[in-house]
Amino acid sequence: MDNIHQLWMTINAFVGEEFPLPSQNDFTQLCGKVFTNSFTICDGELQDIGVGIYRSPSILDHSCKPNAVVIFTGTKLELRALQNISLPSMDKIGQYVFISYIDQLSTTSQRQDALRSQYYFNCSCDMCLDYDRDSLLQLTVGSDNFPDSDQLDKSNYNDPRLYLEKCEACLKEQTGTLGELNVHRVKTLDKAFDAAIDVCEWKKALDYGKATITPYRQLYPSPHPAVGIQLMKIGKIQLYMNQIEEALDSLKQAEKILKITHGEEHPLYDNLLGLLDSCYYKDEL
User: Fold this and answer.
1) The Cα angle at residue 109 between residues 108 and 115, in degrees rounded to 5
2) Mind giving me the DSSP string for 205-249?
3) Quick one: which of 117, 85, 88 has its CA closest to 101?
4) pLDDT digit of tens for each residue in the chain (285 aa)?
5) Using CB atoms within 10 A as the burial measure, which of 126, 137, 165, 200 is most buried?
6) β-strands 61-62, 48-53: how paired?
7) Residue 15 and residue 27: Cα distance in Å, rounded?
8) What contacts 251, CB < 8 A, 6 or more positions away?
């Protein structure tokens, strides 16, 4: 509330005379509606590119284990079912269709904190009650003193190679301390994967990327676009490195997932088919 009040004061000081603002109370209500009903607009690879308000989809409720996913093509929002959903009528959609408002690759306490801070509710879905999953996400072997993935903020590094070295140092310290499915280790592997791609260290990128697949499959609900995108990125590197059989396997797995999560009309799916065609062409040479 203090932040919203400060925002109202700042905007009013700059434009208040020329463009009078709503009252502070109305402005607070408006901000609340925007914060709780907005969607993060992502590109096909789930990278954030903006924020938008979409009237009809805003009725959808949250589940950490959803049966639908929101995918964007530019600013166009598409709601895609991840499984068969028995819907009596369209006016009941809010009672039967659920999406995830937050990152699912996190512990229950992390998800609950995120939901309370932005959406002001607690979740009691099946995933939040899955204590075995939570134990795997937090598993440590021996010392609890380890570098966590939150320390690896890419924006703090001007040199991408230095960032990769930091990721690798973090992974080295985590080895033998964190379980294979520990959320900090998985996120560190993912950051090392992207960092290696940024500096064209393809062998390292492939090793780090492949190391994320088993944890991704176990920790993300199935099917999940993040798993399909990760497999597609791995397959693209394998194709570049002329590992044709491996690339075909990765890309075929990605195709099965992205066909559901993105759909056959999405540009990312079309790009995936192009990569598969390249594999078939190289395989015939």
Assistant:
1) 90
2) HHHHHHHHHHHHHHHS-SS-HHHHHHHHHHHHHHHHTT-HHHHHH
3) 117
4) 567 778 778 887 877 667 777 888 888 888 777 778 889 999 988 899 998 989 888 889 999 999 999 999 999 999 999 999 988 887 788 789 999 999 899 889 999 999 998 888 999 999 999 988 888 888 776 556 667 777 888 888 999 999 999 999 999 998 888 888 999 999 999 999 999 999 999 999 999 999 999 999 999 998 999 999 999 999 999 999 999 999 999 999 999 999 999 999 999 999 999 999 999 998 787
5) 137
6) unpaired
7) 14
8) 231, 232, 235, 236, 239, 272, 275, 276, 279
CA pair distance 177, 271, nearest whole angstrom: 39
Q: Which of 257, 267, 273 is nearest to 224 (CA)?
A: 257
Count, residues in the chain: 285
Which residue has tokens 């021996």? 142
What are the helix and strand counts (H, E) for the chain? 11, 6
Task: State the Cα–Cα distance between residues 182 and 166, nearest whole angstrom.
Answer: 19
Structure tokens at 77: 């929002």
Q: What's the predicted TM-score (pTM) here?
A: 0.88
Number of alpha carbons in the 13 Å side-chain half-sphere of residue 85: 21
Up-side HSE of residue 232: CA atoms within 13 Å toward CB?
25
Both tokens of 30, joined, read 């408006």
- Taking alpha carbons only, the member of 84, 81, 115, 87 closest to residue 101 is 115
